[in-house]
Amino acid sequence: MRIDVLTVFPEVFTPLNASIMKRAQEKKCVSFYLWNLRDFANNAYKQVDDAPFGGGRGMVLQCEPIFRGLQEIRKHNQTGYVILTSPQGELFNQEIACKLAEKPGLIFVCGHYEGVDERVITICDQELSIGDYILTGGELPTMVIIDTVVRLLPGVLPEGATDKESFAKGLLDWPCYTRPAEFQGMKVPEVLLSGDHAAVERWRQQQAEERTKQRRPDLYQKYLQRKKESTQ
After folding, report:
1. Of the four, 8, 115, 119, 172, which is 20 to 30 A from 185 by CA?
2. pLDDT tens digit string along 78-92?
3. What global pTM score does this model have?
4. Residue 68 maps to which CATH number?
């Protein structure tokens, strides 16, 4: 998969060169290309923002450099699915990540300052938000979405590694333990030390359901509904 990012601050994307993202590139599963929005400004000062019509605080990213930037990126990523990171966007989740992982390519437009000129939306395929809060810009949300999507690409992680993670089947993950078996009086559940794999799987399923019910009742209700529909 090819992923292009159009941003005012390409220098903040260093996490793409570490950990799983780095290995994904080394395995040729994904390639990242960062584009500086200022390179598409049509003024000597490389200014890409301006005051909003109607007044108000803050600055707004202009549509002209974004349109020019996307036009240039399209020459290299012709089938790229264009995503605008924005607080007004659809709330990102694992289901959306799975759909994006099936795309041949992705192109991200990072919002910044008070937002982007509304006309930019006309050339984007989807607006996405990572939560109901405000960040300085769309760079961090873009990295979150990229990380979530890339680890789903074939070959990035061992086969089946993501099948039982939180949200994979509508549930949060079960409690995890490792050595030592006892620490400061806290013991690992006996079933995990039993060697009975069937019992371990039953315990994990029960724990995942109970944890989801307690911590995310909204997810739990959806899980019950899907479970009911699958048995009908």
Report:
1. 172
2. 999 999 999 999 999
3. 0.90
4. 3.40.1280.10
